[in-house]
Write a structure and sequence with these properties.
There is one protein chain. Among the domains are: 29 residues, no CATH class; 77 residues. It has 162 residues and is mostly helical. The protein has three helices and three strands. It is flat. Helix 2 packs antiparallel against helix 3.
Length: 162
C-alpha cells in the first residue's frame, strides 16, 4: 500500500524538474543585437553561457522622427483650420438637425405607445394561453423600447455639443 502513495509523489517531482533552453545572441549587419531561443533563427549567432543570469531592460524611448511639423495636439500644420464663427455655425446646424430628429423620435414613441396600449386592450379568441398574448405584444414593446433608446442617445449627443 505504501509504494502506491510514493509513486505519484515521485512522478510529480520528476515532472517539476527545471526546464532550460539555449539562448543565442545575434548581431545584424547594422550592429543591432537581438536575443532568441529559436535554433533556426540563430544561424551564425553565438550561444550564451547557461550559467549566466538574464535580465531584461526596457528599450530606450524613441526620438521623434524628423517628419512634418505638428502642432501640440498632434495635428499637422498643413491641416486646414476652421474659424470659430464657421465652427459655431456648424455646431448650430448640427444641433438643429439633432433636435429635429429628437422631435420626430418623440412623436414616433407616442405613436408606438398608443399602438401598444391598443393591442393590450384587445383580446383575441385564440389567446387562452397568456404566453400567446405576450408573444403578440412583444413587437410593440420592442418598438417602444427602441424609440426610448433613440431618444436617450439623441439627448446625450445634444448635451455633448459645445
Amino acid at each position: 500500500m505504501q509504494p502506491f502513495r510514493i509513486l505519484p509523489l515521485i512522478l510529480l517531482l520528476g515532472a517539476a524538474l527545471p526546464v532550460q533552453a539555449e539562448v543565442y545572441k545575434c548581431t545584424d549587419a547594422e550592429g543591432r543585437i537581438t536575443y532568441t531561443n529559436d535554433r533556426n533563427a540563430a544561424r551564425g549567432c553565438k550561444a550564451l553561457d547557461t550559467d549566466q543570469t538574464i535580465s531584461t531592460v526596457p528599450a530606450p524611448a524613441r526620438r521623434p522622427s524628423a517628419g512634418p511639423a505638428t502642432s501640440p495636439a498632434g495635428t499637422p500644420s498643413s491641416f486646414p483650420r476652421v474659424s470659430p464663427d464657421d465652427q459655431r455655425a456648424r455646431d448650430d446646424s448640427r444641433r438643429q438637425v439633432l433636435e429635429a430628429e429628437l422631435a420626430t423620435e418623440e412623436s414616433a414613441l407616442t405613436a408606438a405607445e398608443q399602438a401598444l396600449a391598443e393591442q393590450e386592450s384587445v383580446r383575441m379568441g385564440d389567446e387562452r394561453n397568456y404566453q400567446k398574448v405576450l408573444d403578440r405584444l412583444q413587437p410593440f414593446k420592442d418598438k417602444v423600447e427602441l424609440h426610448k433608446r433613440n431618444i436617450e442617445a439623441l439627448r446625450r449627443e445634444i448635451s455633448g455639443l459645445r
